[in-house]
Amino acid sequence: MKISNIAIILSSAFFLASCGATENPPPSTPLSNISLEYPTAIAPDLADRFSALALTCVHQEFPNKISRTTDTAEEIGTPKELFPAFYGCFDWHSSVHGHWLLVRLLRVGPQDAAWREEAIAKLNQSFTAENIAGEVANYNRPAAGSWERPYGLAWYLQLTAELREWDNEQAKQWLEILEPLEIDIADGLKAWLPKLAYPIRLGTHNQSAFAFGLMLDWARVVGDTEMEQLIISRSKSFHLNDKNCPLAYEPSGEDFLSPCLMEADLMRRMMSADEFSKWLTEFMPTIPTDGSGDWLAPGIVKDASDGKLVHLDGVNSSRAWNLYNIARALPEGDAREASLVAAAKIHAETGVAAVSDEHYSGSHWLASFATYLMTDRGWNGE
Known about the structure:
The chain is mainly α and about 375 residues long. It has one domain (about 15-380): Glycosyltransferase, CATH 1.50.10. The chain has helices at about 45-55, 80, 90-110, 115-125, 130-140, 150-165, 170-190, 210-220, 225-240, 260-265, 275-285, 310-330, 335-355, 360-365, 365-375, 375-380. Residues about 1-40 have low confidence and may be disordered.
């Protein structure tokens, strides 16, 4: 039974995960017994929950983590002065994907939701020509260097890709405003890619595999063949010969991205099903074929108020979309599919249940990861 639904991620039972009403598939559950009847749209209650977190933080200036190099004292200012569009949500990249979350849910979420009017107003407040001119000036500072590369910059491209794929007049207006920064970011990344001698195999912001995936999806939406070929070339150079990825060493204590699974999710974007199957056999030879889901345990968070430790709530959501995408990229009837799906379901339930407004350390960003998962963006982005 091939997984082909556009929104494979969510069974009806899954929607109740935050209430503790789900049951994980038991070990050795055959694929035919795993729930694969997933809806094609995010549930309204989850869209309400995730949008509320983004609406709260996109214009919340403090607390704030300003991470940038300056040449002079005059370049030091308040977040809103430095980042006139993306000053909220604790840091620049979280603000960018908080805005993406609102655009994404406006596009694919419930069309009659009560929060839509507020979301449009918030986006109009952020997306002005004056604000983006200020963002362009910040990006092009001589001291900017590697600022927000690659994570935040890749998320900005994801934001503009979302607007491009949305057949909506308001989206077209917003895209026109955001394009000047998009052009500069794309040019900067094209200059950087040939200089990157090695992949960045971390579980946090600097990881190259996750950013490459977002960048590749953007390039295909835009039709930027130069960027597409650069990413494919660098990815194959870095990863085609990778073997025996040490998944047992994951996660590290502050990971929100899986180095092994994110790499596989990247590589399936540029291979046929048969090529990917053969590569995956060498890269992750221990994936079970018995339909079990407990071969990969979700990350554990012991203090959700700690901004670093709470990263593990994010790794569960990102692992889930990796696992689903890897499963779908395999040939029809691949024996590993069932175990990939079962592990994905466990991670998805765990990750989404952790999204709450209790601690700003998680509430300013976790909903973006859950939205990427729940709306099946990684697969659609292909």
